[in-house]
Amino acid sequence: MTIDFTPGTWTLDTAHTVVGFSVRHAGIxxxxxxxxxADATLTVGGSLDASAVKAVVKTASFDSNDDNRDAHxxxxxxxxVEQFPEMxxxxxxxxxxxxxxxxxxxxxxxxxTLPVTFDVEFGGVAVDPFGATRAGFSATAQxxxxxxxxxxxxxLEAGGVLVGDKVTISIDSAFVKPAAN
Length: 181
Known about the structure:
Elements: E1 8-12, E2 18-25, E3 29-35, E4 38-44, E5 52-58, E6 62-63, H1 67-74, E7 86-96, E8 100-109, E9 112-127, E10 133-144, E11 163-176
Antiparallel strand pairs: 1-4, 1-11, 2-3, 2-11, 3-6, 4-5, 5-7, 7-8, 8-9, 9-10, 10-11
């Protein structure tokens, strides 16, 4: 498959992007949600390994469809959005094929920066009905929230804890080609 990317800086199409998560709740189910405010740039080089991504997610945009939980997670026990309003990701390497690859970079949550690898699937490039060229990607990674200093929990009467440690991050994104000069 030949992927026709125009080198340059592609911008995130926030209307067609979801930054989601899931985490085990009470040991029996998963809570899912998303961050509704994110921005990113995709710098396309002459090859896959010459490309890079930089992303910023606003922690106050956390939404799990439960106002009480959202307020708690935005507070000091979890994200402390007043002191740490953003999470960031800066890619450092890309390995694999253009269709499926691993994007490794540095994820910063609160005061902790750790390497994280996303498994990425390229969705393709298409021109929309309005003439914009878009590229689509799906990416997933799993992190330990405790490794990022998010350690709050509550013991359950039946054993175990309320919030699991492993958080799955899932991103479906679209980037728009830079305008011709």
